[in-house]
Every structure is written in C-alpha cells, then in structure tokens.
Design brief:
Elements lengths: L5 H4 L21 H10 L2 H5 L18 H26 L3 H4 L6 H10 L9 H13 L12 H8 L3 H10 L14 H7 L26 H11 L3 E2 L2 E5 L4 H23 L5 H8 L8 H6 L4 H26 L1 H5 L13 H18 L3 H26 L5 H8 L12 H13 L3 H11 L9
Antiparallel strand pairs: 1-2
Protein name: dGTPase
Keywords: Hydrolase
Pfam family, one: HD
Amino acid sequence: METMSWQQLLAAKRWGYESRSIDDQHDARSEFQRDYDRLIFSSPFRRLQNKTQVFPLPGSVFVHNRLTHSLEVASVGRSLGRIFYNEMRKMNPDIDNELPYLQEVGNIVSAACLSHDLGNPAFGHSGEAAISNYFTDGAGSEYSRQVTPAEWADLIHFEGNANALRILTHPFTGKDKNGYALTYSTLAAIVKYPCSSPDGHMPHHHRKKYGFFQSERHVFDKIARELGLLRDAENPAVYKRHPLVYLVEAADDICYNIIDLEDAHRLNILSYDEVVQLLLPLCRDEKLGSRLAQLEDLDSRVSLLRAKAINTLIVACADVFVKEQWRILQGRFDRPLIDAIDERLRIAMRRIAEVSVSRIYNAPAVVQIEVAGYKVMNGLLEEFIPAYLKSKKTKYDAKLVALMPKQFHTEQESIYAKIRSVLDFVSGMTDLYAVELYRKIKGISFPSLD
C-alpha cells in the first residue's frame, strides 16, 4: 500500500528560498525554531491580541483572545510532538541518525499551532459567516457571474484555515514576495483540510472544510509534491493530510474545550461545582483532592483542574498518534485524535461539548458580540468591495480605497483577485479596528485630530 515517509515529510526547505542550503550546525536555532520566532514577531500574530476567541474582549475580567489561545495551543502542540518523538526513540534508539529532523517535530507542531488561527477574521466564526453571507445573500451576490465557479466557491464559504496559508505565502504589495518564508513542513502542518473549496464540505474528515483558496492552489500543490503527500483515491485533486496536522488539531481541540470552561467560570456563567463535575473525570491524579483542599481561591482550583485535564488529554492523544501512525501515513485515519481516545475520556469530552454549546456559546454576551460583528463585517464589505472594483471611481470611492494600505492593493485585473485583496484587508482587522472604522465611514462617529 502507498504510504507517506517521515524522511520526506520532515523537510527544512523554506518557501521562496528552495535553493538555499540548510546548515544548522553553527546556529543557535534550527530552521523550525526560526519558523516559530518569525510568527511570534509577525504583525498578523500580534493582531490576534484584539480578535475575539469566544467571549467579548476583556473589560474588568480577563478572558482568552485569539493570541493567548494560540500560545496555549502551541504549548500543548509542542508537548504532543515531544511525546511522539520520545516514543519513537524508545522503539528505535538509532532514530536520530535515520530521521535527523524527527527531534524537531515538537517545534514544527508548535509553530503550526501559533498560526492555526492567523487567517480568522474579527469576531470569531461570525466574522467568517458575515463574509460568506455578503456573497450568498447580500450585495456581493452580483459578482457570481464575474468569477469562475471554483472562485465563487471560495467567496461563498470564507475559510480562516485557507486564509492562514495565504497570509503566510502571498506576495503582498511592498512586502517580501516570499511571504514569511516558512519551512514546507510547517506550512503543510497548518492545512487541516488539504483540498480546494469545490472539493471540501464532504463527509470525510480531511474534506470537512477546505484548506486553500484558488489563488494558493499552486502553493499547496508545490508543498504537497515536495513532501510526498498522498492524493485521495476518490479525487486526485484532494490530498491526504500531513500527519502532523493531527497533532495541531488535537492541541486546538484540547485547549478550546477545556479553557472555555475556565473563562466561563471567571465570568460566572458556570459555577465552581459545575466546572468540577465536568473536569474531574479527566483528571488522573490520586493526590488531586488534597491539593485542591489546600487552595482557598476558587480560580486557582479551576486552574489546577484545567492543568490536570489538559495533561490527561495530551497523553491520550499522543498515545493514539503513536499507535495509529502507520494508518495515518497511509492516509487511512479519518477522524480527529481526540475522537479516538479512551471511551471514558470521550464521554467526559462530549459532556463538556454539550454544556459549552448550551451554556457558553449561547450566553447573551457571546451572542451579542456575534450579532454586532456580523453587522460590522458586512457593512465594511458593502463599502469597500464596490469602491475597489469600480473602474470609474467617484470621489467617495477613491477616498475609501485610499483607506486601504498599499499592501492590500493588487495589480491583477481579475475581479476575483481584486475581491480577494479587499478580503485580505477586512479579514485582517482586529475587532476594535473594524468597529472603529465601521463607525467612522458610516458617520456614527468622527476621527480624533489627536
């Protein structure tokens, strides 16, 4: 049976600098540690600080935003990668000589985790929905006849996962033409759904959504060929996942399921007793009861429960990855790692998911920010897209376009490329900037002269 190979999957070749020789011997950082550092210092990553995770951005009570979430996911991802490497080394003490980059799996996964939400617009998933709705049911529906069917599929299903790959590789005007020049392995580990929009939205897990826009199809094709990703037997235009995607996905699944409970407790949406009932089944520590009794502060108790629960899930998911790695390398493993852990843990996670949907994701504050964000994102697109597409611009159109930074302008003439440029601008906004700009262009507020 055809299979992927770790030897080929772990490549330090860097996007845009493929001909450069790799030599880590005299450097303090490996190529994959460089990926992590480039992302940490990047503007798109910093902007995650002001993008909603679940709850509205903090007032008097601090809750997670996209940046803190991504940092925590990266921490969990590194642990998952290190456990896998350690287990492989136990099975084969000579593994470092045979697969010298295997010891870098933790660094690759943590870098991919840092960027897994990089393409998400403001206001969480409601931002994605608002962008899609502009084209399906809003004023943007008129452009359906001016783009190809595949391009239209991109627009009516805006996907943050695909947008992350674009941010990292697209030659934005005035920027480095090679994007952030990350390694091929890190880029592949970001793409959860290795297919384009017309091939996504299918029952198979690796096709649940899609992972690259039409504008980046050539990018992912090149990465896939270099790393030896398998093609889907049912559809040669679709690839099987890079195996490390499973670890990135598991890190995200672990964090958002558990940490949303911690935020809900801080905001008095869930009581301490409710959180205990949800997290305790995930905590495998005989001394946990005595440790909790020593803590008077309830937030500290919840933090301890959260840490123990995450540790249990890390070990469980890493165990599945090690045991299933051959099926994964053959492209035959078609579900998240967290869905294959011990049944008792799965039952506990299902209960957390049920409570999260009923009590957290439908909490009034969460719904309010989603509704407001929907209105803001749609309003911005209604203003900027027609203005940017017009060949004969009014003075108002010209002034709107002037508000778009140079990096978001394109010299391409196609309608799709121009729309994509506006979406780059709007989707990159933070929650606060989007609201502020919306209020100003709608005349609700006026800019300060300070």
